[in-house]
Amino acid sequence: MNHNPLSEDWDALWLDCRLATMAGAEPYGIIEDAALAVKDGRIAWIGAASDLPAGAEDRAGTVRRLRNAWITPGLIDCHTHLVYAGNRAREFEMRLNGATYEEIARSGGGILSTVKAVRAASEEELLVQSLPRLQALQSEGVTTVEIKSGYGLDTASELKMLRVAQRLGRKNPVTVHATFLGAHALPPEFKDRSDAYIDLVIEEMLPAVTSENLAGAVDVFCENIAFSVTQTERVFKAARKIGMPVKLHAEQLSDQKGALLAARYDALSVDHVEYIQEDGVNALAEKGVVAVLLPGAFYFLHETQKPPVEKFRQAGVPMALATDCNPGTSPCTSPLLMMNMACVLFGLTPAEALAGFTRNAARALNIHADHGSLVVGRAADLAVWDIDAPADLAYRLGSNPCRTVVKAGEVIFDR
Ligand SMILES: [Zn+2]
Fold this sequence. Notes:
With 415 residues, the protein is of the alpha/beta class. It has helices at residues 56-59, 89-96, 101-106, 111-120, 123-139, 155-171, 194-211, 229-241, 258-264, 278-287, 295-300, 309-315, 335-346, 350-356, 359-364, 392-395, and strands at residues 12-20, 30-39, 42-48, 62-73, 75-77, 142-148, 175-183, 217-221, 246-250, 269-272, 290-293, 319-321, 382-385, 402-407, 410-414.
C-alpha cells in the first residue's frame, strides 16, 4: 500500500493566508504567506506555505484560498451574563431623561427587573431571547463563551438559566462554559437576610446544580452592594468541597480584598478589578490568576478608576478581556468593541487586547492547553478576518471584518 503520512488525511487546507497564532514569544506569533491544515477538528499542520510537503494540495479534502486574509484563534468570551429575559432600555432612557435611581427603582427598574423577567420566562422563552446575543458573538469570531446564571436567585430559576446556557451550547457550534452565580444579588424575599440567602446558595442551589452537572465553575459578586468577603468565602469553601473551581467579581467599585481571597482559593480569574491594590496584584501574580478586564461596564457606568494595567504587566498577571454581556451595565455583544475600549480607555496594546480574547481568555476558563492559540494538535477553532494587520481588530470602531468562523474544523459562518 502506498501510504504518505504527511498530508493525505487532511480534511482541509487553508492557503494564501496570514496567521496571528498568539503562540510563541512575539506578541502576535505572526506567520506570513502561511498555510494551515485541519484533521478531525484539530490543527494538523501550520507554517509557511513554502514549507508544505510536496503535493499537499492534491491530498487535502478541501482547499480554501483566503486572498491574504488573516486567521486568528477563534475568540473566547470568558465573562458573560447573556442568558436573561427582558431588557433595560427603558431604564436607560429614563435615566437620560433625568430620573433618579430611586424613581427608576420605584418604577421596577434595576437588576430586580431582570430577576422578575427571568423568573417569569419559560425555559423556551429564555432560550429564544438569549439566542440572538450568542449568534451576535459568533458573527464576530467567538467560538467559546462563558455564561453565568445569577438572575434567577431562587433554585428553580437558577437551574433554568443554567439549562438554557447548556442548551445554547448544544444547539449551536460554540462551546459554552456555564458558571453558577447564585450569589450575584440579594433577592427581594431575602431583604436584610443575606446570610440566610448564602445558606440557600450553599445548601440547596449548589447541590442541585452539581447533581444535574449544569456548571463547571462557581462565581460570586463580592462588593459592598452585594456579598462580603466572609460570605464569599463560605461559597468558595462549599465549592472546594465538591471540587468546583471558583472565580470572582472583585474590586469593581471598591477594594474589598476579594482578590486576596480568590487567590487563596486558586481562582481561575478575578473580574473587573478596577480598585485592586498592590497586595491583590501580587497575590494574583503569585498564583497565576487571570485578571479579566471589562471595559464595557466601566464605560457604561462612567467609571473613572481604571484597572492597574501597568502593575499587572510588571507583575506578570495575565490580562483577559470579555464583553460582560448583561442587561444592566454592559448590553454588549461585540468583542471587537471591547478590544477598542480596552486600548483607548485602559491603555492596552492591540496585541494585549487580542491576547485578552484568545490566549488569556483560554487561561481564565482553564482551556489553554487546547484553545486560544494556533498550535498543531490543538482545536481548529478559527476566525478569518478581512484586515491588513492584527492591530485592525482593536483599531476599528463599529465595523465587523470577520469573514469566516471555523469551529472544530467545520466552517460555521461564511460571509
Ligand atoms: Zn459580570
